[in-house]
Write a structure and sequence with these properties.
The protein is an alpha+beta fold and 336 residues long. It has 6 helices and 11 strands. Strands 3, 4, 5, 6 and 7 form a 5-stranded antiparallel beta sheet that branches. It has a 4-stranded antiparallel beta sheet with strand order 8-9-10-11, covered by helices on one side. Strands 1-2 form a two-stranded antiparallel ribbon. The longest helix has 32 residues. The N terminus is likely disordered.
Amino acid sequence: MARRSDVQQDPRIAGDPDPYPLDGFAPASAASRTAPRRRGWSGGGGRWLVWTGRVILWALIVVILVNGIRAPLERLTGSEQPTATPSGTATSGFPVTQAVAFANQFAAVYLNYDANNLQQRAERLRPFLPEGADEQFGWNGYGRMSAGAIQFAGIEVIDDHNARVTVSYQSGGTRGLLSVPVYYDNGEFVLSAQPALLPAPGPAGLPQLPDPDRDSATEAELRPQLEGFFKAYAAGNQVDLQRYVANGVTVTGFNGEFSLAELKDVVVPPGGADSRKVTAIVVWAVTSGGSAATASPSQDPAAQPAGLEQAYQLTIEKQGGKWFVRDIQGANRSVG
């Protein structure tokens, strides 16, 4: 009986379709070894779908990255319109505070003139004017003007050296504006051109309010209490004030600068039984020197005590059946 050879065929011999058979399986028959067989790509059509999906995913990632990088680059290179800077806002090293002070001082000199004091005005203007400028800076030397209440109204910073400062003023019964062009360099200012007078806006139209609802009974109850409070408030006597203010409250008075001439009106709206917001119209008596008025036999109107009508809002609370002041401040409009 012939023995089967133990020598294995080299698996790399051409024509062997399966050079590495799995263990436990018999080798292919001779017929099958001699017939050539086309080998397909391992994985078949499923692997094509996987690779196609990967290509699409990477393409999306590239698009996202490109757009994410391009947007900030466009902003940096100025492809988008820059945000406008509001007028009156300093966007550079221009010293706004100092320019405002310079313009206010200039306006106080420029807007006050008198034909009888030409030289005095010229001397006061000199520190503001550029070299070679007219010493009166456009005034012809006639007439007179007196202006006051000069206040900063606005500024437009043009660049690191130039700005237009607007100041408001009052002359007689007129309010106005003065536009002051200034130039700045190395810590110093000078007028860069002639100033310009401009009209100031008129008063706003205040809407009329309906008459408030009033609690007449509480008003009558409160009037004697509030008269005593305002007399003590004018005198600033803390002992007397404690008789009219709520427990734990301290109110500082005027220390005799005024005296109560009249409690003109008390307006108490309907409300809670223990707390109300009350409006009181008070007339203070005061002399021109700011001291409390005293009787004077003089018939000169300027020597008579002045009367100033004021409006106050008081918060009052009822404690032990009696009303006391919790807080006092200036009155305000509730609507409108």
